[in-house]
């Protein structure tokens, strides 16, 4: 019997398994499909800054706590797996086309209140500071602490590190039910039989409600489709992340540029559309005109797991004393994966978690 069964093999499930294995737990991961190839793979790997001393909201506190872990996590993963996940501090611009500056000032204020270092750029010096930006850009500020990680490489590193630590990896193994005994989940049912463990963690992203339905638990997590486009250039015109509202440009060191992202409530549909892809390319050209000469590589889509309020569900589920959940991270899954893994491990070890978990209580969106 294993110490922990994890249902879901994306960045959450793999990070939790890695953290638990580092603390001596025997762990099995089960996923209905290939490990790490859903929302975790589809993102752009942006790691926004925040300071734990200044962060006042639960979201910012979680972000700040996770941001502090990324450098060490990346170093350890590289040492254990031999894979460089591309973690780097690249800085980032926030820009706007809007002539109306009221909302812009609120955006600047929000970033300052997060504890991030914010360098405002005078409108008259925009072209001198960032000559690659379109003349249509009305205002910008710079976040020198903005970082990124190459999520496909990070997932490969997690998979390798987990395998090296003895984590049992079970791709293509859907969970079709549970075995229970009173207030405990004693095992999961798969097509190959019952797999028993002392504790079970649900980390199935947008598929978590389907899994929990087998226990008679209703969990509110909705899939939100996000389309992404990949371009490439021989010489990048910029090296920093550029964000404009909810859309972004993320340059990679090898000349790739990610453009994201749309948001559509279309269920579990991951098909790209002409409107979505075309709109992202048009957005990119409007921000950095030199991207008109870039080469189109490909496009794809992922399904972000959105909770009822955008905050993840972290903690114990319903009346089952040994059942935990880590799901509903929406757009923040990759960036919050280290702190999520630590919190789940702390709960399993009966330790006090690093952060108060009341804002992330499962009772917000789960009922039996």
Describe the protein's topology.
Elements: E1 2-7, H1 11-22, E2 27-30, H2 39-42, E3 46-47, H3 58-67, H4 70-81, E4 88-89, E5 92-96, H5 102-113, E6 119-121, H6 126-129, E7 139-143, E8 147-148, H7 151-164, E9 168-170, E10 175-181, E11 184-190, E12 193-202, H8 208-212, E13 218-219, E14 222-232, E15 241-244, E16 247-251, E17 256-260, H9 274-287, E18 295-306, E19 313-316, E20 323-327, H10 333-348, E21 366-367
Parallel strand pairs: 1-2, 1-12, 2-9, 5-15, 12-20
Antiparallel strand pairs: 3-8, 4-8, 5-7, 6-7, 10-11, 11-12, 13-21, 14-17, 14-18, 15-16, 16-17, 19-20
Helix pairs in contact: 1-7, 1-10, 3-10, 4-7
Beta-strand content estimate: 25-35%
What is the count of DSSP helices, taking H or I runs of 4+ residues? 10
Gyration radius over CA: 21 Å
Distance between the termini: 27 Å
In total, how many beta strands?
21
Q: Can you tell me the overall shape? A: globular
SSE-based structural type:
alpha+beta
Description:
- The protein is of the alpha+beta class and 368 residues long.
- Helices cover 28% and strands 29% of the residues.
- Strands 1, 2, 9, 10, 11, 12, 19 and 20 form an eight-stranded mixed β-sheet that branches.
- Helix 1 (11-22) packs parallel to helix 10, helix 3 (58-67) crosses helix 10 and helix 4 packs across helix 7.
- The two termini are 27 Å apart.
- 47% of the residues are buried.
- The mean pLDDT is 95.
What features would you highlight for this structure?
single chain, 368 residues, alpha+beta, 8-stranded mixed beta sheet, 10 helices, 21 strands
């Amino acid at each position: 019997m294993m110490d922990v069964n994890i249902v879901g093999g994306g960045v959450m499930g793999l990070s939790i398994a890695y953290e638990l294995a580092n603390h001596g737990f025997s762990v099995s991961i089960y996923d209905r499909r290939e490990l790490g190839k859903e929302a975790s793979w589809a993102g752009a790997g942006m790691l926004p800054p925040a300071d734990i001393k200044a962060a006042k909201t639960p979201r910012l506190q979680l972000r700040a706590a996770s941001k502090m872990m990324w450098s060490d996590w990346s170093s350890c993963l590289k040492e254990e797996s031999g894979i460089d996940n591309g973690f780097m501090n690249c800085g980032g611009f926030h820009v706007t086309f809007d002539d109306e500056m009221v909302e812009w000032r609120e955006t600047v204020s929000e970033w300052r209140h997060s504890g991030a270092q914010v360098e405002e750029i005078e409108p008259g010096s925009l072209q001198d500071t960032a000559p690659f930006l379109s003349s249509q850009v009305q205002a910008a500020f710079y976040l020198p602490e903005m970082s990124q990680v190459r999520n496909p490489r990070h997932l490969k590193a997690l998979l390798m590190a987990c395998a090296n630590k003895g984590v049992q990896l079970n791709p293509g193994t859907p969970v079709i039910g549970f075995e229970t005994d009173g207030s405990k989940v004693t095992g999961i049912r798969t097509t190959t039989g019952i797999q028993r463990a002392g504790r079970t963690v649900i980390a199935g992203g947008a598929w978590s409600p389907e899994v929990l339905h087998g226990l008679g638990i209703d969990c509110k997590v909705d899939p939100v489709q996000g389309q992404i486009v990949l371009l490439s250039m021989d010489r990048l015109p910029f090296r920093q992340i550029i964000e404009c509202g909810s859309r972004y440009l993320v340059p990679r060191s090898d000349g790739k540029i990610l453009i994201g992202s749309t948001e559509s409530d279309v269920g579990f549909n991951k098909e790209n559309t002409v409107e979505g892809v075309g709109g992202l390319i048009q957005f990119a050209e409007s921000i950095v005109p030199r991207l008109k000469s870039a080469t189109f590589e490909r496009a794809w889509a992922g399904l972000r797991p959105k909770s009822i309020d955008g905050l993840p569900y972290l903690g114990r589920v319903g009346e089952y004393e040994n059942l935990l959940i880590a799901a509903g991270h929406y757009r923040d899954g990759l960036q919050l994966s280290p702190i999520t893994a630590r919190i789940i491990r702390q709960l399993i070890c009966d330790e006090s978690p690093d952060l108060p978990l009341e804002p992330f209580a499962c009772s917000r969106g789960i009922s039996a």
